[in-house]
């Protein structure tokens, strides 16, 4: 199993820098934020003034028997709380509007980043882990911030308003009530550090679990064919248990945290009741003041409890954000040069000049490879698995940059042109055809979405697949299943050829496009390929040598070097590696060692 992106436990952002990075996404909404904060302030003010008016009413209306004044005050309180309800509703709508757009932009940034990363990144990363970052981690951020941030802002402003009101009404009781705040801050910080570590593990384990799901769901057929179902279940059970244990440990911290906050709340309430009662008995404070303070203490600690609970929940969101930002910070190693130009219309001349390449610093795959393909020539690449054939193809497409030497097309170093303009003129037909869940027409037009129906149909006719498409229930509008699962391998291959025909490439790359299909379909594919090759420079990775006997050049690749080159007839005459391999495939030799002789 390939490794995922550097695990957050190994390369974690600091919480403050993570939050700062996240808040940068608020920049486009700087005009909306003051409105939201204004609504938050109104909501907080209405909550802060309520206990003060209740306490004042006890001292000046209830005790003095002023019934009419009390009824008036009840009306005032009703209006104030109604205003508060509307303000809270407005702040939730406004903040929710901002946060959902912010999170949508975050998802968009992740997807754009994934699409723009070089293939070398995906060589070391799991698709399931990337999907987990895009879906699970963003969902965790949404749960923590997108759905509750408005309430959290309201609670925070309420605390500020309540503290001001308490200190204004009675300084001594106000200071006493706030004695537990430093303890609460310390306790929250302590539990938050513990929770953050645990939630990082939960985000990593859910990524591993997603990777396992993605792999095993996509290979159910192979698992059943090789009797691996029970082993897959066992491996999933192990990963599932790891995720379960990580979540249990995180929940255990939260479970210990909330009672601690409740205890501090009770302690503060007892302190206010005891000292406030003493002040009331001695005449230093009125009953209304003490009542107001008891109401303030309850109002004060309720948002603190909610904020504290949110704070621990936010640790999971921060762990998710760390993983997201690690991905967004992943360097795009393969970029267009600052002065890159558009690739002119190609003639199709391809040159490798002493090219060396390695996927890692310690893994050299090509060793000083030189080749020259003239426009319109068919170049066959043959050799054992791992020899470097696919690497040569990847370098022509500039999926990777060479370590040494240069790859040139029409005399232009491909590093000096934009990748888009380069690949726009190169067509690919791979052995493992990839189709998508859209319509047949959309799959054919994958490389040219602006193509008309007439152009799509013409490409299908060249690829010998038009007749088959017309037999489908909705013809070209027929929706294909995931990866074209409802089609045969040959049918998928013909659609792939039509896709290449439609973009009219000057250079064509084929990876044994006729393997794994029946004889009748192979004849259709070969005929379509013959039409596609006409007038184009082509590179064909050949596993069956009988398919490349007409190649203009056959390059025999072994251990990252071209050990033989020439036409089929010339290489047969040399009686070297190619001749031995060709004879072995024809069954004229049984010596398997001939492959490397």
UniProtKB/TrEMBL annotation:
PROSITE patterns according to UniProt: ABC_TM1F, ABC_TRANSPORTER_1, ABC_TRANSPORTER_2
Tree of life domain: Bacteria
UniProt subcellular location: Cell membrane
Record-annotated membrane-spanning stretches: 35-58, 70-88, 152-169, 175-195, 278-297
Domain ABC transmembrane type-1, chain residue ranges per copy: 35-316
Annotated InterPro entries: AAA+_ATPase (IPR003593), ABC1_TM_dom (IPR011527), ABC1_TM_sf (IPR036640), ABC_transporter-like_ATP-bd (IPR003439), ABC_transporter-like_CS (IPR017871), P-loop_NTPase (IPR027417), Type_1_exporter (IPR039421)
Protein keywords: ATP-binding, Cell membrane, Membrane, Nucleotide-binding, Transmembrane, Transmembrane helix, Transport
Membrane topology, as annotated: Multi-pass membrane protein
Domain ABC transporter: 350-584
GO molecular function terms listed in the Swiss-Prot or TrEMBL record: ABC-type oligopeptide transporter activity; ATP binding; ATP hydrolysis activity
GO-annotated cellular components: plasma membrane
Name of the protein described by the UniProt record: ABC transporter ATP-binding protein
């Amino acid at each position: 199993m390939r490794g995922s992106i550097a695990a957050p436990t190994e390369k974690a952002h600091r919480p403050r820098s993570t939050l700062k990075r996240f808040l940068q996404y608020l920049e486009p909404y700087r005009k909306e934020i003051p409105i939201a904060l204004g609504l938050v302030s109104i909501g907080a003010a209405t909550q802060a003034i309520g206990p003060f008016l209740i306490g004042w009413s006890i001292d000046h209306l209830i005790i003095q028997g002023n019934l009419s004044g009390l009824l008036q005050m009840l009306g005032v309180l009703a209006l104030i709380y109604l205003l508060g309800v509307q303000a809270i509703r407005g702040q939730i709508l406004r903040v929710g509007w901002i946060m959902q757009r912010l999170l949508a932009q975050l998802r968009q940034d992740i997807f754009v980043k994934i699409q723009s990363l070089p293939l070398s990144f995906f060589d070391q990363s799991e698709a399931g882990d990337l999907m987990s970052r895009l879906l699970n981690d963003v969902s965790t951020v949404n749960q923590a911030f997108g759905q509750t941030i408005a309430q959290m802002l309201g609670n925070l402003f309420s605390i500020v308003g309540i503290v001001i009101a308490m200190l204004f009404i009675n300084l001594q009781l106000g200071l006493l009530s706030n004695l537990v705040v430093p303890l609460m801050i310390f306790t929250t910080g302590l539990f938050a550090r513990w929770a953050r570590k645990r939630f990082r593990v939960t985000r990593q384990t859910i990524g591993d679990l997603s990777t396992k799901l993605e792999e095993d769901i996509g290979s159910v057929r192979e698992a059943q064919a090789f009797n691996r179902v029970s082993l897959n279940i066992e491996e999933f059970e192990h990963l599932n248990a790891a995720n379960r244990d990580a979540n249990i440990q995180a929940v255990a911290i939260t479970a210990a945290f909330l009672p601690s906050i409740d205890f501090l709340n009770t302690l503060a309430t007892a302190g206010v009741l005891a000292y406030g009662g003493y002040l009331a008995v001695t005449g230093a404070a009125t009953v209304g003041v003490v009542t107001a303070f008891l109401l303030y203490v309850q109002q004060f600690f309720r948002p603190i409890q909610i904020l504290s609970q949110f704070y621990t929940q936010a640790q999971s969101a921060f762990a998710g954000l760390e993983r997201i930002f690690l991905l967004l910070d992943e360097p795009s190693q393969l970029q267009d040069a600052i002065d890159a130009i558009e690739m002119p219309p190609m003639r199709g001349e391809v040159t490798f000049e002493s090219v060396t390449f390695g996927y890692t610093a310690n893994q050299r795959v090509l060793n000083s490879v030189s080749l020259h393909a003239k426009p319109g020539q068919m170049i066959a690449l043959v050799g054992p698995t791992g020899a470097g054939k696919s690497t040569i193809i990847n370098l022509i497409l500039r999926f990777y940059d060479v370590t040494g030497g240069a790859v040139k097309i029409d005399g232009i170093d491909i590093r000096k042109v934009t990748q888009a303009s380069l690949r726009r003129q190169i067509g690919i037909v791979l052995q493992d055809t990839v189709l998508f869940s859209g319509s047949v027409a959309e799959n054919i037009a994958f490389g040219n979405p602006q193509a008309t129906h007439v152009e799509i149909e013409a490409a299908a006719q060249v690829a010998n697949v038009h007749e088959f498409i017309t037999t489908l229930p909705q013809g070209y509008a027929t929706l294909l299943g995931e990866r074209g699962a409802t089609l045969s391998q040959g049918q998928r291959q013909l659609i792939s050829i039509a896709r290449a025909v439609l973009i009219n490439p000057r250079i064509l790359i084929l990876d044994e496009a006729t393997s794994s299909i029946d004889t009748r379909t192979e004849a259709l594919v070969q005929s379509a390929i013959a039409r596609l090759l006409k007038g184009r420079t082509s590179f064909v990775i050949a596993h069956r040598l009988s398919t490349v006997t007409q190649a203009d050049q056959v390059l025999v690749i072994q251990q990252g070097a071209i050990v033989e080159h020439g036409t089929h007839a010339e290489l047969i005459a040399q009686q070297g590696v190619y001749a031995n391999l060709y004879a072995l495939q024809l069954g004229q030799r049984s010596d398997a060692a001939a492959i490397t002789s």
